[in-house]
Automatic annotation (TrEMBL):
SUPFAM superfamilies: Family A G protein-coupled receptor-like. Its main location: membrane. Residues 40-290 form the G-protein coupled receptors family 1 profile domain. It comes from the Eukaryota. One of its GO terms (molecular function) is odorant binding. It is found in: Cell membrane. It comes from Seriola dumerili. GO terms for cellular component: plasma membrane. Keywords: Cell membrane, Disulfide bond, G-protein coupled receptor, Glycoprotein, Membrane, Olfaction, Receptor, Sensory transduction, Transducer, Transmembrane, Transmembrane helix. The keyword Cell membrane applies. InterPro entries: GPCR1_Superfamily_Member, GPCR_Rhodpsn_7TM, Olfact_rcpt. This is Olfactory receptor 52D1-like. The keyword Transmembrane applies.
Length: 315
C-alpha cells in the first residue's frame, strides 16, 4: 500500500526534448539569461530603493514588475536547467512540488497583468490629471495598489488550483516543460467541467480587465495629447506610454503564442518552447526597455557605472 501511494505521488515530466549535443549550449544560454534576469531586475530594485530621487509612484510601482519577473523566472528556469542533462524517462517530481510550481507559475502570470494595470492607472493619473496627481498617488495609495495587484492574483490562482487538487488522479505523465493547472487536472479521469468553466472565466476576467484598462487609459491619454498644445509635455507622455505599451505587448505575445501553438499537434514541441518564453523573454526585456527609455533611470544607471571605478580606487 505504501509503495502504491508513493508511486501515485510521483509525476513524470516529459519537458523539453533536447538532443545531447545541444544540451550544453542550451544550458549555458539559459543560465546566462537567468543570471541577466536576476542581476538586471534586482539591480533596478536596489537602485530605486537607494536613490531617494527615484522614490516616485511610477518607479515604486515598477519595482512590483521587477520582483514579479525575478519570481517568475526562478519558478521555471532552475528546474529546466537541471532537466537539460536528465533523460526524458528520468524526469520526475513529487505531486506537491508540481502543485507548488503550477501555483507560482499562474501567480506570476496573473500578477504580470495586474501590475501593468496599476501602472497604467498611474500614467493615466499623471498625464490626464496632473494637478491632483500628488494628492491621488500618495505613498499610501501606491501601497494599496501594489498589495491589491498581488492579492487579486493570489486569490484567483488559489481558487484555480484548489479546484484542481480536489481531483483524484489516474495518470502520472505531464508533457509540458513545467507544471501548470491544465497539466495537473489532465491527470484526473473525473468530470472537469467546473475546472474548465472557472479556468476560462478567470482567464477572460483577467485578460479582459487588463485589455480594457490599458485600452481605456491609452485612449484617454491619446485624446489628452492631441488636445494639448504643449509639445514637450506630449513628447514626455508619449515616451512614457510607449515604454509601458511595449512591455504590455511583449507580455501579451508571450502569453498567446503558446495557446495558439498548443492547438496544433504538429507544433507541440514548439509550443513547449513558447510556454517557457513567457517566463524568459518579458523578464529579460522589461528592465532593458525601462532602463533605456526612462531618462531618470537611465541617468542614475550611467552615474552608478561612472562612480563604480572611482569607488574601487578609493580603497
Amino acid at each position: 500500500m505504501e509503495n502504491q501511494t508513493f508511486s501515485a505521488d510521483i509525476i513524470s515530466i516529459e519537458g523539453l526534448k533536447v538532443i545531447p549535443q545541444s544540451s550544453t549550449p542550451a544550458f549555458i544560454l539559459l543560465l546566462l539569461i537567468y543570471i541577466f534576469i536576476m542581476a538586471s531586475n534586482i539591480g533596478l530594485v536596489v537602485l530605486i530603493a537607494m536613490e531617494t530621487s527615484l522614490h516616485q509612484p511610477m518607479y515604486l510601482l515598477f519595482c512590483n514588475m521587477n520582483i514579479n519577473d525575478v519570481f517568475g523566472a526562478t519558478v521555471v528556469i532552475p528546474r529546466l536547467l537541471s532537466d537539460l542533462f536528465t533523460p526524458v524517462t528520468q524526469r520526475y517530481t513529487h505531486y506537491i512540488e508540481c502543485v507548488v510550481q503550477a501555483f507560482c507559475a499562474h501567480f506570476h502570470a496573473g500578477t504580470s497583468h495586474t501590475v501593468l494595470m496599476i501602472m497604467a492607472f498611474d500614467r493615466y493619473t499623471a498625464i490626464c490629471n496632473p494637478l491632483r496627481y500628488a494628492a491621488i498617488m500618495t505613498h499610501r495609495m501606491v501601497v494599496k495598489l501594489s498589495v491589491g495587484a498581488w492579492v487579486a492574483a493570489f486569490i484567483s490562482v488559489a481558487i484555480l488550483l484548489g479546484l484542481t487538487i480536489r481531483l483524484t488522479r489516474c495518470r502520472r505523465v505531464i508533457f509540458n516543460p513545467f507544471c501548470d493547472n491544465a497539466s495537473l487536472f489532465k491527470l484526473s479521469c473525473q468530470n472537469l467541467l467546473i475546472n474548465h468553466i472557472y479556468g476560462l472565466g478567470s482567464a477572460v476576467v483577467i485578460l479582459g480587465s487588463s485589455l480594457c484598462s490599458i485600452a481605456f487609459t491609452y485612449l484617454r491619454i491619446a485624446i489628452m495629447c492631441f488636445s494639448s498644445k504643449n509639445k514637450a509635455l506630449n513628447s514626455k507622455a508619449l515616451q512614457t506610454c510607449a515604454t509601458h505599451l511595449a512591455v504590455y505587448i511583449i507580455m501579451m505575445v508571450a502569453s498567446f503564442t503558446p495557446m495558439i501553438m498548443h492547438r496544433r499537434p504538429e507544433w507541440a514541441d514548439s509550443g513547449k518552447v513558447a510556454s517557457v518564453m513567457f517566463h524568459v523573454v518579458p523578464p529579460a526585456l522589461n528592465p532593458i526597455i525601462y532602463g533605456l527609455q526612462c531618462k531618470e533611470l537611465k541617468h542614475k544607471i550611467l552615474c552608478t557605472k561612472q562612480n563604480t571605478p572611482s569607488s574601487y580606487l578609493s580603497f
